[in-house]
Amino acid sequence: MSIQLPPQRRLRRRGPGTAVLVFSFLGGYCAGRAVAALRRAREVHRPVRAFDGRRIVHSASDAILSIDEEAMILFANPAAAQMFASSVGAMQGSSLARFIQAPVRNAKAPCDYFPAGGGRAGRRATDYAVTGIRANGQLFPIEGSISTTLHDGHEVCTVILRDVSERHLVQQKLARSHDQLRQLSSALQTIREEERTHIARELHDDLGQLLASLRMDLTLLQGNARLPEPSQRLIEGMETNLMMAIASLRRIATNLRPRALDEGGLYFALQGLRDDFVERHGIACALLADEAELRLDDTASTAVFRIVQEALTNIARHAGATQVVLKLDRLDGELLLTIRDDGRGIRSEDMEKKESLGLVGMRERVWAMHGEITISSEGMSGTTIEIALPLAGRIIGENAAS
Asked: How many angstroms separate the CA atoms of 163 and 134, rounded?
């Protein structure tokens, strides 16, 4: 006996079967996509595993050499052959001495060609700078690195080399240009000092004498009792203005070229500079120096005076200091100059600013005399400038005594 179910009950029984079919289809689709993706990945990686590493070495743009323990070339890539103007066949089996100049005689091992410490400053210990030899005998600079590995119980060195001839040419041009700029700067400073000296002498001798003559005339007029009182007051006002003009003239002439530098020497010029600094800025300044140690020629005296003058100007403008110490000592043919203040200190980034022309001028004057300058600061404890200037041939009376 069979029982027929209502149509609605039949529909409910067919529902789960449809879902199973849908999920089965999606699962098969995703599995097929995953298998296809895996197949594509395998096809991509298969040629990488089969790729020959020698092709990479042969196509490298840097020269690569393999050297045995006796400095014989075991392998050379085409870039190495091109660098040394040779061929791979000619290089392989040849001595390394044919292509790299040994820094020592009787070089036998690779370490003789690439000694420790032969690299440039700041490079790793495995980096070297050596001299290459082309097939025609031409020498050229090389930089590179070396590594060592064991092969069948023997050491094999792998050297990667780069021709830096063009870089050296650029560096030489930059060095020549830098030297020319230094020479130009020194020449301009010399011309500037000569013009300052000339203008200062013209002001002092011509205009100074003229103003002094006018003052004498005014003094004679003041002695005339027959002049009316208004004329007397006018003459007194003229004398006051004349005295101010004379003082301004002396100040301008001194700033251009202090007469004490020509008449009294460096020590008295520094004394005048110190006194003027204290009077104008109210900052205590001590000068620790010996007059006998500062008898220098005009070039050295002018350079030291301008360095101290620029340092004091910077201190007055930026340091906010209350005390300054100037110390000059002569030791072993050098003048040791120390300028120390107790201001806010100078930051390293301030010394590199384009506006820091005063510091640049100080450095140029020191370097023009083949000296050394160091500027250091310890936070809020102030700034210290230390300068060492060679004085060979610059001490007055030294040549006569010798």
From this structure: 11
Cβ–Cβ under 8 Å, residues 347 and 378: no
Whether 396 and 296 have beta carbons less than 8 Å apart is answered as yes
> Which run of H or of E encompasses 360?
helix 357-368
Instruction: Reply yes or no on whether the pLDDT at 266 is more than 80.
Output: yes
Where residue 248 falls among pLDDT bands split at 50, 70, 90?
confident
Against a cut of 0.70, is the pTM above it?
Answer: no
In angstroms, the CA 397 to CA 268 distance is 18
Cα-trace Rg, the chain? 42
Asked if residue 325 lies in contact with residue 383, where contact means CB atoms within 8 angstroms, the answer is no
Which of residues 64 and 115 earns the better pLDDT score? Answer: 64
- Asked whether the beta carbons of 389 and 334 are under 8 A apart, the reply is yes
Cα separation, 158 vs 64, in Å, equals 7
Q: How far apart are CA 258 and CA 262, in angstroms?
A: 7
What is the layout of strands, in order, in the sheet containing 127-133? 73-76, 63-67, 154-163, 139-151, 127-133, 100-101
Nearest by Cα to 71 from 98, 90, 49: 98
Span 166-182, pLDDT tens digits: 888 888 888 888 777 87
Q: Which residues pair with 386 in a beta bridge?
A: 338, 374
The structure tokens listed for 266 are 């460096």
∠ CA 370-339-336 to the nearest 5 degrees?
Answer: 40
